[in-house]
Amino acid sequence: MSSVARRFHDETTHTPYSVHTSGHTLDWDNKPFPFKVYTDAPTVPLPRDVDVPAVPTLQSLASPAPPATRLTLRALTALLYYTAGVTKKKTYPGGGEVLFRAAASTGALYQTEVYLIAGEVEGLEAGLYHFCPGDFTLRRLRSGDVRAAVAGAAAEPALARRAATLVLSAIYWRNTWKYQARGYRHLFWDSGTMLANALAVGDVLGLAPALVTGFVDDEINRLLGVDPEREAALELLALGPEGAPAAAPGDLPALAHDVMPLSSEDVDYPALREIHRASGLATAAEVVAWRRGTAPPAREPRGPLIALPEPALKSLPLGEAIQRRGSTRRFGHAALSLPELANALWAATRPVPADGPAGLVDLYVIVNAVDGIAPGAYAYWPGRGLVTVRQGEFRREAAYLTLEQAIGGDAAATIFFLAPLDAILAAWGERGYRLANLYAGIAGGRAYLAAYGTGFGASGLTFYDADVVRFFSPHAEGRDAIFVTALGRADSTQSGMLISNTIQPAPRRP
């Protein structure tokens, strides 16, 4: 099978040779600014007092609240804040400052941008807006109701009736500055962790969030006014109740707003642009045909199942868990309990309300220190339990597989998200590559929520692609490594390693 995605994935794999011989260095003087700022668009300040109902984090993943009958600006603001807002900051000696966001991002580079298609939002005029977390405002890019244009581009009539739709995009350079062409994978990991938050918060608020991954790329990009050579739409998220369908807006003029430069210059990675173009959809008819793809057949466990406890839904309120989140930079060797691990695995594999298939990503786990289960390597079957792949102590192997980073071996458990990539590409075409990385990102983001909601930490990691598959083979044959999330308790002797332990959480307002 000739596939741009297959070639891109293979050419951007990490190996010990590629990592240790890479001549790539970080140009700190040219690091992209972390916020996109439209300098000429009207601003709409958002309410500063935001919160969500005090629903336990795991309960938010188990069952949504009853559907809301309206979408208010206050509810929308809460969703924006807990999805993409600045939740806390850390100041270093000498005046340096780092702002931390609600959702994890590879390298804390935050390349995911959020646009809002507002139709029936109480307290907000219909239009297209950009959300800037830096000053916590919306900037109006288009006036008028454009929901019908989004619905047409997505071949999804319901989007013309939903109260609002978020559009997540990515600015390539903000991530490729560090990760080069491989950063394309990160675009979907990071938008996935944001969507994990947005789906949970949307459910708590009764907004019935629904993810749309199929759409005509050029039409959505033109609607947003972005240059797809530098920034492109990734996903849509419908929110709020349905009402009367929006009328067609007619011909929409091209946008030409001024934007503050991110850095003095950017570096182009043609391979990234090639895979994004190859995975695009050109017409509404193509979108409809694409949605007819079928999920890979369900696997059956190979070997005896080790039962796991039912999810214990007692946990911190969702808003508090998001406030506490901060990628753990060093783990101690303290053990997790078996219910804690079970909660994280359960959370990671909750169904996603989306137009794409379920079951694209399989979870494999190296267990180093979990009370009630022997150290070893395992495969997880949602709702059924674990199957032993290899028995033994594998801290050293876990550290090696996660790019020779100690954190992977120090973790109590490290989750490796693998996918049958060739089967996905056969069923879903080049765009299936987006799905595999996105669903792994959502799963990792939900594992984050479970971890911080129940009192331990998590960190997303990169990895040696082929070595991960070899380690879990023959059980994992036919799969590719997609993403990694490590779980454990922070090393309390290391000052500043766990953000949420060293920075007082911000008040529940931006």
What layout of secondary structure does this protein have?
Blueprint: H1 4-11, H2 16-20, E1 43-45, H3 57-62, H4 73-84, E2 86-91, E3 97-101, E4 112-118, E5 127-132, E6 137-143, H5 147-154, E7 162-171, H6 172-179, H7 183-204, E8 210-212, H8 217-224, E9 231-242, H9 270-278, H10 284-290, E10 305-306, H11 318-324, E11 336-337, H12 338-348, E12 362-367, E13 370-371, E14 376-381, E15 385-391, H13 395-401, H14 406-410, E16 413-419, H15 421-428, H16 431-453, E17 457-461, H17 465-472, E18 480-488, H18 499-502
List keywords for this structure.
alpha+beta; NADH Oxidase; 2 domains; seven-stranded antiparallel β-sheet; 18 helices; 18 strands; globular
Précis, in short:
The protein has 510 residues and is α+β, with helices and mostly antiparallel strands.
Please tally the helical runs, counting DSSP H or I stretches of 4 or more residues: 18
Widest sheet: strand ordering: 1-6-5-4-7-9-8
Instruction: Please state roughly what percent of the residues sit in beta strands, choosing from under 5%, 5-15%, 15-25%, 25-35%, 35-45% or over 45%.
Output: 15-25%
Structural class, by secondary structure, is alpha+beta
Please outline the major beta sheet. 7 strands, antiparallel
By CATH, the architecture of the largest domain is named: 3-Layer(aba) Sandwich
Shape, per Cα inertia axes: globular
**Share in helix:** 25-40%
Radius of gyration over all CA atoms, rounded: 22 Å
Determine the CATH topology of the largest domain: NADH Oxidase
From the N-terminal CA to the C-terminal CA, the straight-line distance is: 49 Å
Poorly predicted runs are: 494-510
Going by CATH, what is the homologous superfamily of the largest domain? Answer: NADH Oxidase
Could you say how many structural domains there are in total? Answer: 2
Question: What is the CATH top level name of the largest domain?
Answer: Alpha Beta
Number of strands: 18
Average pLDDT metric: 93
